[in-house]
Amino acid sequence: MVKYILGILIVIAVIIVAITVGANNDQLITFNYIVAQSELRLSSLVAVLFGLGLILGWLVTGIFYLKIKVQNISLNRRVKRQAQQITELTTPKAE
Predict the structure, then answer these.
(1) pLDDT reported for residue 86
(2) Is residue 37 within 8 Å of residue 30, measured between CB atoms?
(3) What is the C-alpha separation between 54 and 4, in angstroms, rounded?
(4) Helix axes of 42-90 and 2-24: crossing angle, nearest 10 degrees
(5) Which of 11, 24, 43, 59 is the most interior residue, by most CB within 10 Å?
């Protein structure tokens, strides 16, 4: 529940920042990138770059999260297997 509330607060904060940046920056600037050049409003450029950074951050975080989850699953399997081997070795066999 706390995660959802925190997520909603973060989304609201991002929207407020985007509105504030967009409302105060109407200058036209020339943006040079590797292959071409274009004229954009500063607010649009900031919004696009902010969005790209946000998406890139989520991707990197997601990759690390998935890596940890896979490692956790394999370690849990290993622990179960070892626990089973220990019980097999410690239980007396009926002969």
Answers:
(1) 92
(2) yes
(3) 18
(4) 160
(5) 43
